[in-house]
Amino acid sequence: MTLKEGDFVRIHFTGFTADDNEVFDTTKEEVAKQHGLETGNVDFAPLVACVGKGHLLKGLDDALVGKKCPSTFRITLAPEHAFGKKKADHIKLMPLKVFHKQGIQPQPGLDVTIDGVRGRVKSISGNRVVVDFNNPLSGRAVEYEVDVLEVVDDVTEQAKTVVSRLLRFDAPVTVQEQQATVTLPFELPKEIQETITKEVVDSTPITSVHFEKAKA
Questions:
Q1: At the N or C end, where does the chain have fewer CB atoms within 10 A?
Q2: Domain range annotation of the chain
Q3: How many Å from the N-terminal Cα to the C-terminal Cα in the chain?
């Protein structure tokens, strides 16, 4: 079949930098090991995404429309369709004491997290540190090799895909008739519940979402 916007699809992918062919991301464990990527806490498995709903980089999302399933393809993405262009306002000059308070001894090339935002130290001069908070791949063209494996028609898996993407962790989801129930160890704020409900209803045949707290 031919993929269209709104289809849920299971894919394997490997991302390369276009200029030097360096692998920076993959869903395949054997590829990660071959290229020296971190494998310790990574769950390698095909990814499920809803085509055209922003579950993937824009260029990759757009490329899936019209592709055959199953199929394999490779595509080059310009920075604006991948990780974006570098932004000057994402490069910050920060006091050295900010790092020392967190027990960090900054050095050029060191990856740091400041106020929940990841960045990379560019240089140090006296008591000032220049940190680049742009994505390390911003401003670079990238390539993706994609294996389109199958269309996912199971409504429960569709709902779980949407919920897990928004929560950034796997949450138990059950579906009965056209209602999904999401079970969590804590209570979500109402506005987050509304956001999740809207995306699930917009993306799947489900008409309502119920949130419940897991029993202790």
A1: C
A2: 1-84+139-153, 88-132, 154-216
A3: 45
